[in-house]
Design a protein that fits this description.
58% of the residues lie in helices and 14% in strands. With 852 residues, it is an alpha+beta fold. The chain is elongated, with a radius of gyration of 42 Å.
Length: 852
C-alpha cells in the first residue's frame, strides 16, 4: 500500500520466490572391478572427485523445492540430465578425464539456480607395473648343464594379469643361410590371478635352444597389469645376457688365475723364509742375553705384523682357488678324482692357518709387557716353531698344488679334445649336406675349430713343461700326444684349404681324419692321466709300506733296548754302548722322518697325526739319550718305552692314511650318507624358500623378525649337521665331494639372518648350498652305479696295500695269505710282494705284543 497524507492506495501483497538450490549433495564412487576397491561415499556436500579412470560417480541431491528439471554441465561441453523426484534428484556418470562440472536446476515456475558451485574431476593414473630380475641380476656365464636359476619380482598397484620370459639367441657362428633374430617367449604362471605382488622362482633349462660355445642369450621378464579400462599396461625388466662360454675360455681364465696364485704362494714362502731367518737371529741373541732392547722388540712386532699379513694373503689365495675350481667344475673340466683332491688341498690351507700360530703371536705380544725375560724367550721360541711349521706347510701346499695342476690340465685337455671332436663331426655332417659352391660359408666355423685346436696344442706343451719340474714324472710321455696334435693341425689346415678352394671331397676327407685323430687323442689323454695317478699311488703305497716296516723294526729295537737298559745299574759299563745304539736309532728315525716329509710334498696321505707321532718319538728318544748320558737307566728305560709308543702310533696312523688312499667306502656307509644328504637338501630348500619370502620387506614386523630368527636357528642346526657328517665321513674324500666349502657359506647365511640383513648375496649363497647338496647326491649315485658294474672295487692291490687292512684282519693270520695271493694275481713285482710279506709278518708280531 502507498499512502500520501490522508490518501492511500489499494493493499497489494508481495511474495518473495526462492530460487532452486542444492541443500545436500552426496557422491558415491564405484571403482572399476579390476581394482578390487570397495565403493565409498564422499563427505556430504563434497563434489570434487579424484579417482581411477572408469570410476562411476553416483550423485544424490536434495533441494529446497520441487525441481522440474536438472542436469550436470561439464566444461568440456557435455550435459548429463538428472532424474528429478520432487525435491530430490539423482544421476551418475563415468570418470574418463579431468573436467569441471556444475549442477543446473529449474523449478516448476521456471526459476533457475544462480552461480552454481564448480566441482573438479581429477583422474588418478593407474601406474604401470614394475618387474625386476634380482637373481642372477647380472650378465652370467652358463654352466655345462645349461640351467639358469631366475628370480622374477613384479608388482602393480592393483594387480598383475600376465607374466612371461622373453629371450633372443645371438649365435656366435651363423649357420649358412640362416639368420634367426626372432624374439621368443615363455609364458609363466602367476601364483594367484590379479595378485599385486609376486616373487617367482624359475629354473630355466636352456638345453632345448641347442646353444653352441660363445652363443649369447639376451633375456628379460615382462608383466602386464589388469587395467581393463585403459588397456593392460606392460612393463619389461632390464635385459641381461647368459653366455655359453667355450671350454677354452674357462680353461684359459682359470689357468691364468692359478698360475698367479702359485707365484703368490712362492712370494709368501720367500717372505716367510726371511721372517724365519730374522727370528732365528733374535733367538740366538736371546740365548746369550734374554733381555731384549726396545729396537729388538720392535723387530719382533714387525715380524708378527708381517706374519699376519701373509696369513691374510694366504686366505685370499685359498678363496681364489676355490672360485677357480667352482668354475672348472661348472665347465666339467675336472674329473671327480681331481675335484676331490682339490677339496683336500683346501683342507691343507686350513691346516696352514692354524689357531696355534695366531695364539703364538698373541702370547708374544703379551710377553712384551712382562718383566720376566724367560717368558719372552719362551714366547719367541713358540712363535719361531709355529713360523717353521707355517713355512713347511706353505712349501708342501705349493708342491701339491703344482702336481694337481698337471692332473687338472690333463682332465681339461681330454675335455677340450672331446669338444673339438664333436664340433669337427658336426662340421663334417654339414659339409656332406651342402654343395661345393657353399663351402666358403662354413669357413668361419672351421677356422674357429682350428683356433681352438691351437689352444689345445699349447695346453699339451704346458703340461709337458710342468711335468718336467718333478723328478718322478716323465715328460717324454707327452711326446706321442704332441705328435698326434701336430697331425691334427695339419689335417685341419688341409681341410681349410679344400674348403677355400671349393674342393668338397678333400675338405671332407681331411675333416674325417682330424675327427678320428681327435677322438684317439682324447683317449690317449684319459689313459695318460689314469696311468699318472696310478703310478703315483703305487709310489706312495710302496714308500708308505717301507716307512711302516722301518718304523716297526725301530719299535722292536727300541723295545729290546728298553728291556736291556731297565736291567742295568748306574755303574754298568754297557750304558755307554747302549747310548750309542740309542743315538743311531735317533738318527735313523730322522732319516725315516725326512722320507715321509718328502712323501708329503706329493701326497695328502701324510697327515699331521703321523708327524706328531714321529715327533713324540724323537722327543722321547732324545730324553732317553740324555738320561743314558747321565747314567739314569730307569728314566732312560721309561723314555724309551714312550718312544716305542710313539712309533707304534705312527704305524697305526700310516695304516689309516693307506685306507684313505684306497678310498674304501662301505656300501652301507654310502647309503646312510645319501639318506642324510637328501634330508639336508630338503631342509635347505625349505629355508631358502622362506628366506626369499622375507627378503626386501623393509621395516619388518615383530612376527617377521621372529621368523627370521627361526630361520637363522634352522640354518645353524643344518651347519651342525654338516659338521657331524664331516666328522663321521671325514676320511672318505670321495663321499664328501664339494661339501667342504658349504660350511663357510652357511656361516655367512646365519650371520645375515641374525642381523636381519638378507640380500641378493644371501640368496645366492643359499642356492649354492642347495646345489652342492644335490650335486653331491647325484655324483655319489653315479659313482655307486659305476662301482657295482665291476666285479671288484675299482682299485688295484697296490692301492689297497697292507695298511688298508681293517684292524680285525691283523688278528687273523689266515687272511694275510689270502691278500698275498690276491696281490700275486694282480701281477706285481716279486720284490714288492716280498716287502708286503715282511710288513704283514712284522705287523702281526707287533699287534700281538700290543695286545699283551
Amino acid at each position: 500500500m502507498l499512502q500520501a497524507g490522508e490518501e492511500s492506495s489499494e493493499m497489494f501483497t508481495i511474495h518473495v520466490e526462492k530460487r532452486p538450490m542444492v541443500r545436500l549433495l552426496q557422491a558415491e564412487l564405484i571403482f572399476p572391478p579390476y581394482s578390487g576397491l570397495e565403493s565409498r561415499y564422499l563427505q556430504d556436500n563434497v563434489g570434487n572427485v579424484t579417482a581411477l579412470k572408469g570410476t562411476r560417480v553416483r550423485l544424490y541431491l536434495k533441494t529446497n523445492k520441487t525441481i522440474k528439471q536438472g542436469w550436470l554441465e561439464f566444461d568440456r561441453g557435455k550435459k548429463l540430465p538428472l532424474k528429478p523426484l520432487g525435491a530430490e534428484l539423482k544421476g551418475q556418470f563415468r570418470l574418463v578425464r579431468d573436467d569441471v562440472y556444475r549442477i543446473r536446476l529449474i523449478d516448476n515456475k521456471g526459476y533457475r539456480n544462480r552461480n552454481p558451485i564448480e566441482y573438479y574431476l581429477n583422474v588418478t593414473a593407474d601406474q604401470k607395473p614394475v618387474v625386476r630380475l634380482p637373481l642372477p641380476g647380472k650378465d652370467v656365464d652358463l654352466g655345462e648343464d645349461l640351467k639358469l636359476a631366475l628370480q622374477i619380482n613384479a608388482e602393480d598397484d592393483f594387480g598383475l594379469s600376465r607374466i612371461r620370459l622373453g629371450y633372443q639367441v645371438q649365435k656366435a657362428v651363423q649357420v649358412p643361410g640362416v639368420k634367426d633374430t626372432t624374439l621368443r617367449f615363455i609364458e609363466l604362471k602367476l601364483p594367484n590371478q590379479n595378485t599385486t605382488q609376486v616373487q617367482l622362482d624359475y629354473l630355466w633349462d636352456l638345453s632345448p635352444l641347442s646353444l653352441m660355445p660363445e652363443d649369447v642369450v639376451r633375456y628379460f621378464a615382462e608383466v602386464w597389469d589388469n587395467d581393463a579400462v585403459s588397456g593392460f599396461k606392460r612393463a619389461r625388466s632390464q635385459v641381461f645376457t647368459a653366455r655359453f662360454p667355450s671350454v677354452y675360455e674357462i680353461y684359459q681364465e682359470v689357468t691364468e688365475a692359478q698360475d698367479e696364485d702359485i707365484e703368490n704362494l712362492k712370494d709368501i714362502f720367500t717372505e716367510s723364509q726371511e721372517l724365519k731367518r730374522k727370528l732365528d737371529e733374535i733367538s740366538r741373541e736371546m740365548q746369550k742375553n734374554p733381555d731384549l732392547d726396545w729396537l729388538k722388540k720392535q723387530d719382533l712386532e714387525e715380524i708378527a705384523q708381517k706374519q699376519e699379513r701373509l696369513q691374510k694373503n694366504l686366505e685370499q689365495i685359498r678363496r681364489e682357488l676355490e672360485q677357480a675350481i667352482e668354475r672348472l667344475e661348472k665347465g666339467e673340466l675336472l674329473s671327480q678324482e681331481t675335484l676331490e683332491k682339490y677339496q683336500q688341498l683346501q683342507q691343507l690351507f686350513q691346516e696352514i692357518m692354524t689357531p696355534e700360530l695366531q695364539q703364538a703371536i698373541e702370547k708374544l705380544r703379551k710377553a712384551f709387557d712382562q718383566v720376566d725375560p724367560e717368558k719372552l724367550k719362551t714366547a719367541v721360541q713358540r712363535f719361531n716353531l709355529s713360523q717353521e711349521n707355517f713355512l713347511k706347510s706353505i712349501e708342501r701346499t705349493t708342491n701339491i698344488l703344482k702336481r694337481l695342476q698337471i692332473e687338472q690340465r690333463l682332465d681339461a685337455a681330454a675335455k677340450l679334445a672331446q669338444n673339438l671332436a664333436e664340433r669337427q663331426k658336426l662340421l663334417n655332417q654339414q659339409l656332406e649336406e651342402i654343395a661345393s659352391q657353399q663351402l666358403k660359408e662354413l669357413l668361419q666355423q672351421q677356422e674357429k675349430i682350428r683356433e681352438d685346436a691351437n689352444t689345445l696344442d699349447q695346453v699339451l706343451k704346458d703340461v709337458k713343461e710342468k711335468m718336467g719340474e718333478f723328478n718322478d714324472l716323465q715328460p717324454a710321455q707327452m711326446d706321442s700326444l704332441l705328435q698326434q696334435m701336430q697331425d691334427i693341425l695339419r689335417e685341419m689346415a688341409q681341410q681349410n684349404q679344400g674348403m677355400a678352394a671349393g674342393n668338397k671331397s678333400t675338405a671332407l676327407k681331411s675333416g674325417q681324419m682330424s675327427q678320428q685323430d681327435l677322438e684317439q687323442l682324447r683317449q690317449m689323454l684319459v689313459n695318460l692321466k689314469k696311468n699318472l695317478v696310478n703310478d703315483q699311488k703305487k709310489q706312495v703305497a710302496e714308500a708308505f709300506a717301507r716307512s711302516a716296516a722301518e718304523l716297526l723294526r725301530l719299535s722292536e729295537e727300541q723295545e729290546q733296548l728298553a728291556q736291556q737298559v731297565g736291567g742295568l745299574s748306574a755303574t754298568s759299563p754297557k750304558l755307554n754302548e747302549l747310548a750309542e745304539k740309542q743315538l743311531n736309532m735317533l738318527n735313523y728315525l730322522g732319516k725315516v722322518s725326512k722320507q715321509l716329509y718328502q712323501l708329503s710334498q706329493k701326497s695328502f696321505v701324510v697327515t699331521p697325526e703321523i708327524g706328531r707321532a714321529i715327533g713324540k718319538s724323537v722327543s722321547h728318544m732324545s730324553s732317553a739319550l740324555n738320561h743314558l748320558t747321565e747314567r739314569n737307566s730307569r728314566a732312560a728305560s721309561n723314555s724309551q718305552r714312550l718312544a716305542m709308543g710313539g712309533l707304534n702310533e705312527a704305524v697305526l696312523q700310516i695304516q689309516n692314511s693307506m685306507q684313505d688312499l684306497a678310498m674304501a667306502a662301505s656300501a652301507a656307509g654310502l647309503e646312510e650318507f645319501l639318506r642324510r644328504l637328501q634330508k639336508m637338501a630338503g631342509q635347505q630348500q625349505g629355508i631358502n624358500q622362506q628366506t626369499i619370502q622375507l627378503m626386501g620387506q623393509g621395516q619388518m614386523t615383530l612376527e617377521q623378525q621372529a621368523a627370521m630368527a627361526r630361520l637363522a636357528a634352522a640354518q645353524q642346526a643344518l651347519r651342525k649337521s654338516l659338521e657331524q657328517l664331516q666328522r663321521e665321513f671325514g676320511k672318505r674324500s670321495e663321499i664328501l665331494g664339494r661339501l667342504d666349502g658349504m660350511g663357510r657359506d652357511m656361516d655367512e647365511v646365519v650371520k645375515d639372518l641374525r642381523n636381519k640383513q638378507v640380500t641378493r648375496k644371501t640368496i645366492e649363497r643359499q642356492q649354492r648350498i642347495l646345489s652342492r647338496l644335490l650335486d653331491a647326491q647325484h655324483s655319489l649315485r653315479q659313482r655307486d652305479r659305476s662301482r657295482r658294474r665291476q666285479a671288484r672295487p675299482g682299485k688295484t692291490y697296490i692301492v689297497r696295500s697292507p695298511d688298508e687292512i681293517p684292524p680285525e684282519i691283523l688278528q687273523q693270520r689266515e687272511r694275510f695269505q689270502e691278500d698275498l695271493l690276491r696281490a700275486q694275481k694282480e701281477g706285481y713285482a716279486e720284490d714288492y710282494l716280498e716287502l708286503i710279506r715282511r710288513y704283514f709278518e712284522a705287523l702281526s708280531r707287533k699287534m700281538e705284543n700290543l695286545e699283551k
